[in-house]
Amino acid sequence: MKMKKLVTTSFVALSVFALAACGTSNEESSGDSDAKRVGVLQIVQHGSLDAAYEGFKEGLAEGGYKEGENLVIDYQNAQNNQDNLKSMSEKLVKDKSDLLLGIATPAAQSLANETQDIPIVVTAVTDLAEAKLVDSNEKPGRNVTGTTDMVPDISKQTDLLLSIIDNPKTIGIMYNAGEANSKIQASLAKEALEKAGVEVKELTANTTNDVQQVTTSLAKDVDGIYIPTDNTFASAATVVGEVAKETKTPIVAASIEQVEAGGLATYGIDYESLGKQTGLMAAKILDGDATPSTTPVEYANELKLVVNEEMAEALGIDPASIKAPE
Amino acid sequence: MDILILVQSATSQGVVWALLAIGVFITFRILDIADLTAEGSFPLGAGIAAISITSGYSPWIATLLGFFGGVLAGLVSGLLHTKLKIPALLAGIITMTGLYSVTSRVMQAPNIALLGEKTVFSWFQSLGLNKINATIIVGTLIAALVILLLFLFFRTETGLAIRATGDNIDMSEANGINTDNMKMIGYMISNGCIALSGALIAQNNGFADLNSGVGTIVIGLASIIIAEVLFRNQPLLFRLITIVVGAIIYRFILAIVFELNVEPADSKIASAIVLVLCLSLPQIRGKLGLNKSKGGVKK
Asked: A83-94 and B2-25 helices cross at what angle (nearest 10)?
């Protein structure tokens, strides 16, 4: 008797789901008709990505779209659980967004997988073509375009590092080999450094928990360290900084946020201004003046020299002596 | 009727995540082992499938290769646990850690994009179905096939021996069952299912990512527990089916949380609270005297 009841319950439950699954296709979600809806999907909370999002909103505002006036933003953050990305992308597409923003590679891919119609802009993605978001950086060809956080010329950063050190012999590179963005940049940096005639030692950390050991272990063997834009090392920037002070190791990191938290200097990407650039692209698309398929991917048009003066003092370096490379 | 779209979306994802939950169920409930290999075998399956597809293999072969990758991962954990006598929890963590490098090597990159590639879902899409419905159909078919095969398998002599090993290891040994081998087979099937889930989800998401294993064990366990709270003391076949329902409900709960637009920093606590509410529902009903049947979750 009890068995029978349970079987019935489960069948009812299953069939409700099955029915629901077959029953719907295109329902309108009601909303404000004048305001544009922008859906944002970000992979994880951290300084650079948050700055990119803030910049994006500034860019949109400059382009005439202000939150609360003629713009509704639906912001989703996957908190580094990639299994959330799919549900969140589906939600943003379902809610009839006029434009989507993907922050960092997996978030961007997840959105691109969900819709071929809604315009998507992305930022904090290093290689859009490699991630199959666009056909090519010059002619995206699909519904995706955006900004790359690849430094237009990575040797500007490695040159900066080399210019700080007297007679550099060995330079270390640290990154998380699990991040597509970092891996590309690390190999470019290695190339540039070897071209400049120094030996390169690489060490990688998979999680922020390993960062301290990796930094300590690398710092003792090298004259200076380069860190590409990397979520793991960006999240643990202060740990890196503490080790660097102890071991007196000059560190050049690709992102400004990381240098401010625990590096010596950078000539790098300001994620806020990169996000702003992305926001301006988005505003043009919302205006109908541009379409992603014909809008080339943009590189950061502003690189900034940032010197962490407190770190310079701790390392015994005169901050004024650090100059942007030619 | 927004809710129907949510249910539909949750169903499409639930059926593919269910394979992971079924994998976890085999070690966690049938063998009574807490195996954390899942967080490594899941991205391994995804990675193998993705690299196979981009190398030109048929998506079905790629998915199958992903499955076998998981079987091998399970074998490693099984050997560590049974032959080297490493406690199960540690054995799983060790394999999971090592698999990170293995998967990285297999994929040759931390992220492989599958946008525009042929997947196991694309054939149904080419018949004119939208992506969600294609996923529901393919996912349900594969889940049904896996459940059927597992059901038949657990009725064979080996299958029964595996179940006996999980129920009472001393008694099983006394009856001449090689419990080490049974555990090993369990580990292999379990992680095969988990990797299969990874392979399907990568194709559904449009990319495989080295870091996609984070948190997967929670998804598996949550699906199992939800199923057990809702449907108690079921025979094996129904338990496997209820896990699919559990996985769907879990995805549905998450979708609701996302729908509420909670602050990003609070989204995890929100998911946790909703889960607690669902899981404690039978207790609350019991306190109110609405529940006639007694007894907790079957271990």
From this structure: 170
Taking Cα atoms as reference points, which of B112, B92, B73, B75 lies closest to residue B194? Answer: B73
Cα separation of B53 and A97, whole Å? 31
Q: Which of B19, B111, B141, B223 best tests the A interface by mutation, with the highest count of A CBs <10 A?
A: B111
Structure tokens at B130: 């939208």
pTM of the model: 0.79
CA angle B143/B220/A14 to nearest 5° reads 45
Cβ-nearest to B259 among A6, A24, A91? A91
Nearest CA-CA distance, residue A311 and chain B, Å: 30
Query: Could you tell me the CA-to-CA distances from A61 to A216, B90, B127 in Å, in that order?
Result: 44, 52, 43
Of B212, B231, B232, which is closest to A82 when you measure between CB atoms? B212
Note the pLDDT tens digit of each residue in A147-156. Answer: 998 888 899 9
A-chain residues within 8 Å CB-CB of B10? 87
> Does residue B96 sit at the A interface (CB-CB below 8 Å)?
no
Determine the distance in angstroms separating the CA of B181 from the nearest CA of chain A, rounded to an integer. Answer: 33
| Residue B12 with chain A: CB contacts under 8 Å | 21
Per-residue pLDDT tens digits for A159-204: 999 999 999 999 999 999 888 888 999 999 999 999 999 999 999 9
List pLDDT tens digits, range A99-136.
999 999 999 999 999 999 999 999 999 899 999 999 99
> Which residues 120-149 of B have a C-beta within 8 angstroms of A?
130, 132-133, 136
Count of residues in chain A: 326
Please give the Cα distance from A291 to B234 (Å, whole number).
55
List, for chain A, all residue ranges whose pLDDT scores fall below the cut of 70: 1-33
Contact B171, B164 (CB under 8 A): yes
Q: What is the spatial distance between Cα B132 and Cα B138, in angstroms, rounded to a whole number?
A: 10
